[in-house]
Amino acid sequence: MPGSTAPSAKALLRDNPARHVELPAHPRPHPVVWTRARVAAWQASGARPRIAVWTPVQLQQFLKSVRDDRLHGLWWLLALRGLRRGEAAALRWTDLDLDHAELTVARARTSAGYQIFEDTPKIEAGARTIALDKQTVTVLRAHRRRQRAEHRHADRPWQENGYLFTAEGGEPLHPQTVTRRFSRLVAASGLPPVRLHDLRHGAACLAHAAGADLKTLQQQLGHASIAVTADIYTTILPSTQHRAAKATARFLRKAADATSRRKSKKGRTRPTRRD
User: Fold this and answer.
1) Phi/psi of residue 132, each to 5°?
2) 3-class DSSP state of 176
């Protein structure tokens, strides 16, 4: 057509130049443990690692410091079983089977700004059943008694929504409220700082140090890929490193001793000389 500005064949690219562009690699941050040296450096400068987890002793100290908090069961569950914030906030009592020590993750509460959305987990692996230990069952039973007492003595109408963890009037928790409350409790405890999500890293670290294999950890944390579990969500506690170092040294000594015994035995056994 007259006045047409259709591109000529010479103007068309046969290949996509962007296909050959290599983006710079950004190393994934890995969790580090709050060792004594790191705590001293933080106290001196105020600088903290991007992802930091407590030692078992530090975690025990925190859980002890919040044992009278009305959401003690929430902090315990996040710290030991590694649920995501939204998964814990969406838990209902129907998701919990204390008689069989199991918890089912079926939904997650997320926020955009201050608006709440609740739906099934964003990935298929997020919907899972998690085993609970006896102590966690005990903690959650105590939480249920505490919640029922709050309901009986509430000075305003209680919103019965069936959520495991609620605000003081029975309303489901806003995820940002959980984060802010946790930050205040950490500051009050006097322990080195960790983020709420760092509890998830810490739970993976503790389970790994206790002997859980990566496949079990992947299922517990609800990861689609075991590579994510191995690369990001586990680190090695100093005590585990020391055990590994001692085990390696014992193995080396045993191998050396076995070689010495074989050589000694061979030296004592001489062939019979024939005349």
Assistant:
1) -120, 145
2) helix
Domain assignment present for 71? yes
Instruction: Report which secondary-structure segment, H or E, holds 148.
Output: helix 134-153
Global pTM exceeds 0.70: yes
The pLDDT of residue 273 is 55
* 270 is a domain residue: no
| Residue 140, domain CATH | 1.10.443.10
Say yes or no to pLDDT of 189 above 90.
yes
Which of these, 224, 231, 214, 217, lies nearest to 126 by C-alpha position? 224
Q: How far apart are CA 158 and CA 234, in angstroms?
A: 41
Domain-embedded: residue 147: yes
Instruction: Establish if 193 belongs to a structural domain.
Output: yes
Angle at 203 between CA 200 and CA 204, to 5 degrees: 90
Q: To the nearest 5 percent, what fractions of the chain are helix, strand and coil?
A: 50, 10, 40
Range of the domain at 89: 31-247
Q: Which residues pair with 116 in a beta bridge?
A: 111
Residue 76 vs residues 28, 58, 80: alpha-carbon distances, Å: 27, 13, 6
At 101 the pLDDT is 96
